[in-house]
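input
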Amino acid sequence: MKCTLIKGVVGGVTNMRRIHSRDVKPGMTVASDVYALNNQLVIPKGVVLNNKTISKLSFYSVPFIQIEDEILAEETQKPLTYHEKIQNDPQFQKFKARFEQEVDTFKNQLNDVVNQNAPLDVDALLEHSNNIVSSAPDSIGILTLLSNMHSYDDETFTHCMNVSLICNLFAKWLHLSEDEVNKATLCGLLHDIGKMTIPETILRKPGKLTEAEYIKIKEHSRAGYQILRDNKIDPHICNAALMHHERSDGSGYPLHLKDSQIDPYAKIVAIADVYDATTSPRVYRGPMCPFEVIGIFEHDGLQKYSPEYILVILENIVNTYLLETVKLSDDREGQVIYINKDHLARPTIKIDDVYLDLSTNKNINIVEIV
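output
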């Protein structure tokens, strides 16, 4: 790999290389300022990446960054984490088996639609999502279940199913009608159907993508819209495929639409899409703590997503973790006992007999659910 030499922080030289954002890992050091498409500074030079800063790359659709070759020592993995406890739960394992079964059937049906011009039966597709929802145990929330699913070979289909289930939940939180909930579920399920037109060599490329390959992947929005429109699918579902990467401030793609121009179902899918991308495990990191993700949404998302959707959704996400035990950045552990509506990512934590309001203790964060 060709490397560029830059001056190190303390004398000498340090190798700098350009990598795809999906290949970055915690501990890497940013070698040059990272900017979003709208020229907004996302991560400054010299920052040592962690799960939170890595998630910003996905959040702002940053394709490539420059990193220094020196990688900090990885943290020692602790045994029996919160996620490992969930994954060892028999109810989770039963849910996982049903999930895999439905995803496999869903994959075969979409392959027939795209490759053999078979009719697209939305009722049959919706049944897959509903079957999974009905199999979810009451003791473990759907968001927790999905954040603990491992990556599969068929990452596109797994992600589509995840987004479908999250849209189903979000739509219920927004008090939509049953028909609207079903439509939102289908929007999530089919939002990435256009990726089936992208060559497998690009989708599964283990190394970094070229700029031409990244541009090719971005074509999936228009391609998905065309497939769904050709099958005479509901316009909202078509629009969700086209617009799920649009943002309310006009910084998205492919049309750079602004808030009032974006289909309401696409707005729901956009939030679900980013939430799944940040809270699901990836090769280069584990699943992010939901409170970290909520903090990013609160800091940057109110300009990018419609407030009438994002605020309701974030508040409901936080409420699912009320009374859970969490680990703080100072290594203390406590219980979430009160949600601060003005600072959703910073609730009040009970530590023994001490009540710690994170909204007034900005130097302490929730880093893990234990």
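quick obs: Residues 4-71 form a domain with the Molybdopterin biosynthesis moea protein, domain 2 fold (CATH 3.90.105.10).
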